[in-house]
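go over both lines:
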Amino acid sequence: MKAFFTIAMLCTSNVFMTLAWYGHLKFKEMDWSRNLGLAAIIFISWGIALAEYAFQVPANKIGFKENGGPFNLLQLKVLQEAISITVFLVFSFIFFKTEKIAWNHFVGFFFIVLAVFFIFKKW
């Protein structure tokens, strides 16, 4: 149950992270944000990133083996990276329809998934 909860919280945090890092690139299409300067965009992104931390930090605390969770530190990090790239791919397909995903992107994503496999493999 802690593994599922940790992964769900990591997914949620990565949605907020992706919105904070890349969502502002779509602000120019929204009436309310057309005249905002860079400082305002930074503060809005920080506000969104605060929600990311509200999920990321507890996910790591709950999921960490030394706190009774199922994952060691390396597993948490690689899992987070795989979730991050997955969320980003979904985000780019939905919000940036002009972005094209080529075969080399899929190869790179495959290697990230392979990294998760090897990090979780018991030798």
